[in-house]
Amino acid sequence: MNQFFSEADYFALVPAVMLALFGCAILLFDFVVFPEPRQRKRLAFVLIAGEAFAGYALWNQQANLAANGPSQAFHGALVIDGFSIFFNWIFIAATVIVAMVSYKYLEIEGEHHAEYYSLMMFAQCGMFFLAAGTDLVTLFIGLELMALSFYVMVGFLRTSKRSNEAAMKYLLLGAFSSGFLAYGFSVMYGISGSTKLADVATAIAARGPFDPLVLLALATTSVGLLFKISAVPFHMWAPDAYEGAPTTVTAYLSVASKAASIAFLLRIFLGPLASARDAWEPILIFVAVATMTVGNLAAINQSNIKRLLAYSSISHAGYMLLGLIAGNDTGIEGIAVYVMVYTFMNLGAFLVLVALRRKGIIGEDMDDIAGLMHKSPGYALLMLIFLLSLAGIPPTAGFLGKYYIFLSLIETHHYTLAVIATLYVAVAIYYYFRIVRSMFARELTEPAPLSTSFGLRVALAVSVILTLGIGLYPEPFLRLAQTSLPH
Amino acid sequence: MMDNHLLSLVLFTPLAGLLVLLFIPSRQKELIKVWANLASFAGFLISLPLVSRFDKSVSGFQFVERANWIPSLGAQYLIGIDGISLLLIMLTTVIGFIAILSSWNAIQDRLKEYYCMFLLLQVGMLGVFMSMDFFLFYVFWELVLVPMYFIIGVWGGPRKLYAAIKFFLYTLAGSVLMLLGILTLYFQYAGQFGKYTFEISELMKLSLPLGLQEWVFWAFFLGFAIKVPMFPFHTWLPDAHVEAPTAGSVILASVLLKMGTYGFIRFSLPLLPKASMDHTIVQVLAVLSIVGIIYGALVSLMQKDWKKLVAYSSVSHLGFCTLGIFAMNPNGLAGSVLQQINHGISTGMLFLIIGVVYERRHTREIAEYGGLAHVMPKYAVIFAIAMLSSAGLPLLNGFIGEFTILQGAFEANRAWAAFAVTGVVFGAAYLLWLYQRTMLGQITNGKNLHLPDLSLREIVVFLPLIAWAIWIGVYPKPYFDILEKPVQQIVERVRPGYYQGGAQAATRPAPGVTGRGPGVSGQ
Lengths: 487, 523
What we know:
The complex is a heterodimer.
Chain A: H1 7-32, H2 41-68, E1 71-73, E2 78-80, H3 82-109, H4 114-132, H5 136-154, H6 161-192, H7 197-207, H8 212-228, H9 237-244, H10 247-270, H11 277-300, H12 305-326, H13 329-356, H14 372-375, H15 377-391, H16 397-411, H17 415-441, H18 454-472, H19 475-482
Antiparallel strand pairs in A: 1-2
Chain B: H1 6-22, H2 29-53, E1 62-70, E2 75-81, H3 83-102, H4 111-130, H5 134-143, H6 145-155, H7 160-193, H8 200-203, H9 210-227, H10 236-243, H11 246-256, H12 258-271, H13 273-277, H14 279-302, H15 306-327, H16 330-361, H17 372-375, H18 377-391, H19 397-412, H20 414-439, H21 456-474, H22 477-494, H23 498-506
Antiparallel strand pairs in B: 1-2
Helix pairs in contact in B: 1-2, 1-4, 2-3, 2-4, 3-4, 3-11, 3-16, 3-21, 4-5, 4-6, 5-7, 6-7, 7-9, 7-10, 9-12, 10-15, 11-16, 12-16, 14-15, 14-20, 15-16, 15-19, 15-20, 16-18, 16-19, 16-21, 16-22, 18-20, 19-20, 19-21
């Protein structure tokens, strides 16, 4: 077997192996070690232990990267570079934060099962391959692993119609988009005769951007990729899936799945499709503007906060695309920074909603959050900070994400796009502040205390410290993001 | 040596007060009030040494503090002041204290949040006037929005939420576009000098073509003009003022609006000298200023609401300030800065005066009042002083500022001065008429018969402002001395050779301006 696998291959794979192993272990633990239902919250700690191992492996990879530079594994199917490591740190952080708040939430929903945690780890395993994969097949399998896990998680509340409907919608549209993506990949394979991204890139560069087959591959691949990041016009699933899914899953979906999909998108557009920039730049400009427009304008009238945040997350995808359109180092670094800050601020906002879900109270409507300042000033203040950050107001972290995107647009002379993007900040503040208004200016309607847990408090503390910390002293985080530039 | 960190101390005293305030339980209402007043008073006391240690014979920035903040972006923690910032900082610490003191009885619920917001606002405003780094400046600039939103939106009048979000959206839209202008300069600097920095004095070394300067100028213009607010961007101001609680109006009119005029003076002029001297731009801005002066005054004449009247009078008075800036000569600029201080003093007093009767009667309809001088004689005297200072009566502060601005405007373009001077006339008209309708004659409304006169605390609130108004009115020389060097620097920067060529030559913009005046350097 040694001619097939080298030590470097194993080394590259360790984080994913850890995730898969612990994911399976959780299933076993469920009936072997912690058979009692009330013991299930310990499974969250098993998950965190697994993440610790994965994190340790990632740490080693980072040390190796610093010493020896990027390394390939499995004959170029995987690459361990700053980009993959950076995104994997984000996945780990997001998974741990979500897992910490899930046990209480699922108990309230009455659907606390071990599968939940293992699905999270399997999904994250897929994300690992999306960030590290450099082979069409690897990437596709990674995507499906992540997506399938999410289909199940979105429908995790088996008795809830909303949840089932959301899962069904997400599954059908997701499968459809995967079909497009697979078709695009098959065309790429047809062009190049190889599944390696580097070979595909060479073949596409040789044909030029406006070759019919290249355009076909570009169009179909883009459909699949843009669906995953919920860009307009492939965003329809997002509001429904976000609203219907359990709030913890919504948080996970909106953050980790989006980050992984952005990583995937960057791998494809900056890899095989890099030479076809002339063809895709106008398309992406249209998509980005449409995404920001639809996301921001549709959010204005939402009365369900989860749905509002779904539209806001659509608009954030538009901002991230702008960094790709600019395409210079600032833009790509900007996407990395954006994804990083978005992870913590968006998670934070959803965590507050998680706390609003109590026995018998769904707690995701504008009315449910009314007067929160009177009842739980701490939570109201946290939500305010997360919302300010989502809007991009300094000194919160969200400002830095937007800062890089704006700067990259100016550097590449996309002035009109820059003006549009900045003006949507003002629109965004309007709908985010509808929530703020409800929290601070309205009277208390629901006196029942929030459902908190130790995990939720820790997770909120981590999110807010990072949201403010990255905003006030961003230097170390920016350095981390700089390492993610693919070269 | 304390000197080294004096500015930081001034900047962060309110923040320290805020942090302590967070730990006082909400039930301890008296303690919260006392602490907030102490903190803001301490902020004022700590800012006093700035005046005594400020060396007005030195040009350039003083009390400079520099520390690396975000090396990856080239953003620094870099603060320092010159004469212009010194005056505005003193205005901020004085008015900040007075606004907090005036809230003692006016605010009854959510005291802790209220005072926290005020102290945070104070930090933001002080930071804006101190920053010598554009990134830092922008952070403080935006930091101001949030507490002001809450002050209007939580403790305001019936339409507070509408007014608060309008304020927020207007100013935010302007400032994000300004951010694009900042980033353009930043990027251009990196292109010319090979490194990234937000330091203002470094960015001044840029030589940009006129076309680009004009674009950046308009981007800055939107940010600053909305804040000032210049006509036609003023529509948020009356709403915000009418709905805001008294102290909020005071701080908004007296200090917050000055951030806009300060932005023009500190950034637009020195960073974009060619655009600032461009004939079209100067004409447009002067005309907008004059329209603002006359329009604000005329609309004031029509108002039935006391507070709205004063709000529109701000539009008119700030028109003078911007006109002085774009007259682009020493008189105009010095007059403009002084008038900003004056407006802070007199309009601050006028809003406090409205607050006094509003606390007693809970209405601001002018028609509800009349003959108040009979029952509230002390109040009538103080109102008279505030009103006359705002109207520009000689020996009071308003006269000095308006007169100097008109001198500057006259030097730049006689027609400007001719139009602007009508604003003074109208200003006297609406203020005197307001005074007549509310204070003089017989008491027509029975509810006013037993209004109590000013209490000692209320008088204490007014005294420093009155003293200040008289000081500037009688002996303005120290102020002009402080302003001389920084104004000279800006004029040299925008119109090189102004002082050598004498006033005659300088009334016409010299052709072939290279825009390479002596940069402001922070030593």
